[in-house]
Structures are given as structure tokens and as C-alpha cells.
Fold this sequence. Notes:
By secondary structure, the protein is α+β, with helices and mostly antiparallel strands. It has helices at 12-24, 37-40, 186-200, 207-224, and strands spanning 4-6, 59-67, 71-76, 81-88, 91-96, 106-107, 110-111, 132-137, 142-145, 150-155, 159-166.
Amino acid sequence: xxxxxxxxxxxxxxxxxxxxxxxxxxxxxxxxxxxxxxxxxxxxxxxxxxxxxxxxxxxxxxxxxxxxxxxxxxxxxxxxxxxxxxxxxxxxxxxxxxxxxxxxxxxxxxxxxxxxxxxxxxxxxxxxxxxxxxxxxxxxxxxxxxxxxxxxxxxxxxxxxxxxxxxxxxxxxxxxxxxxxxxxxxxxxxxxxxxxxxxxxxxxxxxxxxxxxxxxxxxxxxxxxxxxxxx
Length: 231
């Protein structure tokens, strides 16, 4: 399953049902169907009140989640604002600001640092510069997770939760072929592809030249793209 680490399981049956229901929550065809609890679980629809944080036209998905103790959703970001509604059980959530992206050792939309409590600082020395914000969600709690904020979620108990995602930007920014709603914005995808090609062109240069042009690229990004108030 996407973004899931199975840390441990106390009961095989819980593992099976967690996997089955979490997969089904994304629709009968998880590659094409956008998750919507009101459509896929209509008998539960009246039990979840969607907070009026957005207009109906901005709604993207509502994901029904069931998790056993110890199941971890590793550190990642989403491109849409979302609400995490804790129905039963407890979850520990750790958040990092988008400005900590340079300290989280990203591979795509995920951090390579899996153990937040005991990080390997020899492999990830910059991680100690990231500032975590930690909370525990109790039944009935709702957490607003802004777009681009990194978050790591661990189920402390067997529990049920619902994620609600909505598009707060113009629809043209988003990839319409993304049923999960977690692909980068189209402009961001193109920019990263161009950057990858640009870096590839430096591969044949001697190390000192590659380092020099790499520093020039970093300098140009800092001068033209980064928000000076956030750096």
C-alpha cells in the first residue's frame, strides 16, 4: 500500500482487514477511482460531517482509513489542504514546515528518515535542523494539515479515521490523472523534470567544474525562486 510501513502486528486478522479495507477505501478500482466515503460507504455517510472549510466544487476526496496499532504512514507531503478526522483510537502525528524540505532528505514526496524518534544522524546530519510539531489525536479530534506540510502518522491503537482533501488552487494546476491526489502540481512536475535533465548534463564534467556549476544553479534558485521571508 502507498506510503505505509507495517511496524508490527499483534493479530493476523487485524492485518488482513486493515489491508483490505484501506485498499477498498480508494474505490473498487484504486488506479482510477477517487476515494469518497459517501459513495463507497454510503451507510457511513451520515456519520461524517464535512467541515465547511471549502466550497463543494473544491472537494477532491474523502479516504476511509482503518489501522492497527503500530501502523505508520511515513513522512510525506500532500499538494492539497486536508483534514484528518479521528473517529476512534488514537494517532500520533508529527508535522514539519515546508521550509524544512532541505533537512528531510526527500526521495520524491517522502523523507528517507524513517525513524523520527531515533534518526541516524550519521546518514542524515541535517535532520536535526528540522523542527517537529507533535500532537496526539484522540477520538473526535480534527487536525488541519495544510498543503506541503510534511506529516508522519502512527496509529497508537486500533482505530478509524477519515481524511478529507480539497483543491484550494485553480483546477488547472493539478494533474487530472491522479486518483490519489498526491502528485506534484503540473508546473512542479515539469520543473523537476527539467532540473533532472540539467543535472544530468553535468555528469561528464570534472568534479571541480560540476561542483562550480552546481553552486551557480543553487545560487540562482535561491535568488529567483525561494521566498526570502521564509529562508
